[in-house]
Amino acid sequence: MKVKLNELPQAQQNELREELLTQLSTTGDFLSLTRKHEFLMPSFSFEVINKVSSSKCLVSVLDTGIIIFEPLSHDSVKDIVLSSAVHGNETAPIEICSELIRQLILGELHLQERVLFLFGNPASINIGDRFVEENLNRLFSGGHSQDQGHGEGLINKERHRALLLENTVRDFFEKGNQVSDKRERFHYDLHTAIRASKNDKFAVYPFRHEQPWKEEQLQFLLSCGINTVLLSHSPTTTFSYFSSNEFGADAFTVELGKVKPFGENDMANFSGVSQTLTRFISGQDLQLKDYVADDFSIFEIAQTINRHHKDFQLHFADDVENFTDFPVGTLIASDGDVEHRTKKEGEAIIFPNANVAIGQRALLTVTPTTIA
Ligand SMILES: [Zn+2]
Fold this sequence. Notes:
globular, 8 helices, 3-stranded antiparallel β-sheet, binds zinc ion
């Protein structure tokens, strides 16, 4: 059923709202509702009394894939955004978030902080693909309105969705300031990668504009099972950079392993991240390990290789894993007449994708570094 909400008479809208509220508060299954109403959902809210702590929280559904939890029995100090399905086929993070949402709605998990969950691109979840028309994670920080090719209006649903997600995150963080004026803001944008990785899980730390990288955030990632971090040294149009840059949030693009269809993920492989996020939103001690530099593999970007020609080729096999390094001078890509070679000791490839549209990024190379 594709609901065109504004075309429905008011009475029918209200009926749908009631129906959704009943379903959601009974099952806690926001993912199924989101998938059933992939383009639009009427907004509604309800209160939940926690079965364990008897504390109250407010659950607000703002639109399809967009749900906020706010404590009502105490003041929170953190505003936490957990996004998944910015790429619709990256199912493991969707399942992790769906389970946290279910436990919160059914009152099985205590809510300590304000949390916004986002299923980024519900339409692409439903077709089991990375995106419908355009890579959503290249459309933030105003990217949705650039290179439109014509004047007004956003040219596809992903661009509308990017704008909606930006506005939702902005409102969420600003509303936190009404709870207390000293807030901590976080955004973990959860993904899985297209190909396997030598370092199974890793995170991209968005450009901080000369502010220091935070050891404590790396400790948090480590407790999620992530010891590999890629430092970004320039602004991008990713979702995590948007939250970091515009709202000072501690934000990361978190890659949790390789893409698999729903039901084929070995959830034991994600117990670290599930457990740490559970502790984080419910206010339990995170039990972070002391910071030891040797616990981490930290990289920075060496080369960004964009595809400029129809004739573009990667010169390594499809099954070469992310973070595989090549000797200096190795030919890694050719783009028309242009040859791209490794230039530095330990230079490794990451996120290769020869099939991107012309003008887009086809490959990154990285080299080892430290945050000191
Ligand atoms: Zn992704």
